[in-house]
Structures are given as structure tokens and as C-alpha cells.
Write the C-alpha cells for this entry.
Amino acid sequence: MVFKILTDSTADLDEKWAQEHDVEILGLTITLDGTVYDTVGKNRLTSEKLLDSMKNGSKPTTSQVNVGQFEAAFRHHAENGEAVLYIAFSSVLSGTYQSSVMARDMVLEEFPDTTIEIIDTLAAAGGEGYLSILAAEARDQGKNLEETKTLIADILPRLRTYFLVDDLYHLMRGGRLSKVSAVMGSLANIKPLLWLDATGKLVPLTKVRGRKKAIKEMVTQAVQDVEHSTAIVAYANDKEAADKLKADLLEHPAIKEVLIMPLGPVISTHVGPDTLAVFTIGKNKR
């Protein structure tokens, strides 16, 4: 049976691509300078506007996809007799996953024969997007919902996520990084390379002096133990650095393709301007 794939706006998927591949995106919201913005659709807040505002001192906040949004989406598909696979933003970084579980239970009470499967990716940004892309490819190749869920569940513990953030203040402000880690990273031009560990927590992996050396170290870490030949590079407003990072990754024989994805406004809110990120899939669990 054909099933619907849902994800959320933290996956940073291109909306045109999502429409073409029948992937539904549910949007988190952002409050910027007293105004609440959507992160999907024609009137969505762009990363460019957000990052410019942050450079001028704005302190935006994000809000999860709420239970009502999920209930409406799940109910719509249940009424149409459509099974759903929702690929969720990390439960460690947001309450969005918990909202989806609550909504699923509510809809299943009314539609007990429907199928609503939820995967906690323990990922964000291009990592969550990578898993969504692989799920869509699997479905297009004829895999059913259970086969696709099994495939993604096998891959996600091996997903590698590396972030190089220019200013750790934004992560500290949003509660995604401890104050101690943020303060240490701001000293003496130290650039901590962050990653999502096995539990989904964003933690410092190593500390390097200077941005160029930090980018080199990020490439070294990203290409270790690589299984899939595709890598994803994400960036906040520094496309030139992303292109250079892509070229560096392609020098490694195991990497055959690099997709570049701009960081969306939700993730940009927490990481700030000039952030770079790399996502690869390894042979072993992280």
C-alpha cells in the first residue's frame, strides 16, 4: 500500500523537491522581534531575513509543531485511508516528537485501523533531511511502510552530524548547549567542533584554534567510517564556504556526491550566522 511521508521544517528540505516527491512538511514557528512567522509556505520566514536580524541583535525563539497541527494532519490521512510515516525532529532537541506521539494516540482512538508510524531520528537539519530523502527513495522503489521504517531505523544510528558554529552563544541561549561549553568555545579563537552523540545530544567533539583548521578537522571526522557515498553540507549564509567544503569532501575517494542545503530558519535560530554542517552515514553506530 502506498503511504504518506511526513517530516517537519527542521529537515531543511527544499519545498519544491518535497512537493515533487510527495513529502509533506509540517512547520515549526519562529517569533522574531515580536512577530510570529511560519517556516513553510509562500509567506514563510527566510533564513536570510532571520540571520540579518540576528546580526543586528535580534534574539528569535522557536516553537514546536503542536499537538493540534499533528492531529489535523494525521486525521486527514486517516480519513482518506492513507498510512503515514512521520520522520521526526530529534526528541532530545525539541518537544515536536512528543507532540506527534500524543496526536497519533488521539487519532488512533477514532481510527483504530489506520497506520501512523513515527521515527525519532535523533537528528536535525540535513541529517533529518537525509533520512527523509532516503525514505522517499525507498518508497519510490516499491518498499512498503514497514520496509521503509526498518531501513531508516537501521541507518539513523549510523548518521553522523557535525556542526561548526561561529558563535556558541545562540546554542546556549536556546538551551541546546551548556553555558560552560559555550564560554570555553569563545576563548582564544577556539572553534569547538560539535556533533550529535549516540543519545542525540549536541556536544563538543574536539576543539581547534581557528576556523580553517576547524573545517579541515570536520572533513576528517566526517569521512571516517563512511558507508554511503553521498554527503550533505549545510550552511548559514556562507555559500562560498559551503562550496569549498563540498570540494574538500569530494577529494575523499569514498565520497562521490555532495548535496548542499541551506540551513532553514528554525535551525539557524539556534546556531546563528556562518554555521557550517556536514552529514554522512557511517558503517558503525555513532
Q: What stands out?
A: The longest strand covers residues 202-209. The longest helix spans residues 125-140. The CA atoms of residues 5 and 23 lie 5 Å apart.
